[in-house]
TrEMBL record:
Membrane-crossing segments per the record: none
Name of the protein: Right-handed parallel beta-helix repeat-containing protein
SUPFAM superfamilies in UniProt: Pectin lyase-like (SSF51126)
Domain of life: Bacteria
Domain (Right handed beta helix): residue spans on this chain: 120-267
Record Pfam families: Beta_helix
Coiled-coil boundaries: none
Gene3D superfamilies: Single-stranded right-handed beta-helix, Pectin lyase-like
Length: 346
């Protein structure tokens, strides 16, 4: 293993890579660097590391490099990129097309193109991990994932032009992320593909939904969705929505008329502007939730709802506790209390 120093030994990352071997480390000094252009990791350089001095110290500025991607990983795998900032690129800050890479402690900001796939961090490969990263003020999504079996862990995405985290692959894990302040009709987290896992994420202050899953067979566990302009959580079919806290949104948890067979269990839906839950569709299980202090309705089952089970829920202190306009919905063992002085769920 050898350490290649940029810029004292090699003026750019690309020149250091041209002289590197697998297992080498490219160490970038503190400073603002405007002349790197597109950094592309070539083939046959598996296990390379590109390491800065910290994202407040090593800043790669692409504003003088039109039509450029900050760093592209496509021909080699098991690459680590860490401890630096990429800003001002027209295209992606980081584009990952290969597999088994780590993006750690990287900040991407101010990418310019407001088009699909021009995300701050774009992951198209598989088995990649993006951890402890920040992605903000980018033209498209903060983090976009179109590959399968990737891991987005403890990242913070904010003020991006489309969504915070956009998922169009399957079997990905989103754990412990914060997605906030997407105000251009954006969701905190948005997915079109099935079979992903969302645990302990915070989605807040987004103009559309906190978490919007237009896909099936997902798990949402222990997320917090608050102060979003539309639903805190919106799901399609065959999802498990368990133990989430959904508060001060337009609606708490919502399903549409074609959505069915969700398990919605042990969630707290409180202080939402309209409904704690807004349920259309059929054959959903709604058990052991708390729906309290919502301005209009605790649980609203719409005219297209059918054969839903809502049981053992605590429904209290809402403008109206229950409205059921559907067919053959089964209500059993719920605790329903008339509006009175507001108290938290117990």
């Amino acid at each position: 293993m050898a350490i290649k120093h940029v810029p004292s030994e090699f003026p750019t990352i690309n020149e250091a890579l041209a002289n590197a071997k697998p297992c080498d480390t490219i160490l970038i000094a503190s400073g603002v660097f405007t002349n790197f252009g597109d950094t592309v990791i070539p083939a046959n350089l598996n296990t390379i590391r590109i390491v800065g001095e910290g994202f407040d110290k090593t800043i790669i500025d692409g504003s003088a490099c039109p039509d450029s991607v900050g760093i592209t990983l496509s021909e080699s795998s098991f690459i680590t990129v860490e401890s630096l900032t990429l800003k001002g690129f027209n295209d992606n800050g980081i584009l990952v097309r290969s597999n088994n890479n780590i993006i750690n402690n990287v900040r991407v900001m101010n990418t310019e193109l407001p088009f699909a796939n021009k995300d701050g961090i774009r992951i198209e490969g598989s088995y990649n991990m993006c951890i402890n990263c920040q992605s903000m003020n980018n033209g498209a999504d903060g983090i976009g994932v179109s590959g399968d079996n990737n891991y987005i862990i403890q990242c913070r995405v904010s003020n991006n032009n489309i969504d915070g985290i956009g998922i169009s692959g399957s079997n990905n894990l989103m754990f412990g992320n914060i997605a906030e302040n997407h105000t251009n009709s954006g969701d905190g987290i948005f997915s079109t593909d099935p079979s992903n896992i969302y645990i302990n994420n915070i989605a807040r202050l987004n103009s559309d939904d906190g978490i919007d899953l237009e896909s099936n067979n997902n798990l949402l566990l222990f997320n917090v969705c608050s102060h979003n302009g539309n639903d805190g959580i919106e799901v399609s079919s065959n999802n498990i929505v368990w133990g989430n806290k959904v508060t001060e949104n337009l609606n708490g948890i919502g399903t549409s008329s074609d959505d069915r067979s969700n398990i919605i269990d042990e969630n707290m839906c409180t202080d939402n502007i309209e409904n704690g839950m807004l349920i259309d569709g059929d054959s959903n299980i709604i058990d052991r939730n708390c729906m309290a202090d919502n301005d209009e309705t605790g649980i609203f089952l719409g005219s297209t709802s059918e054969d839903n089970c809502y049981r053992s829920n605590l429904i209290k202190n809402n403008g109206t506790n229950v409205i059921d306009k559907g067919t053959n919905n089964v209500m059993d063992s719920n605790i329903i209390k008339k509006p009175k002085k507001k108290k938290p769920c117990h």
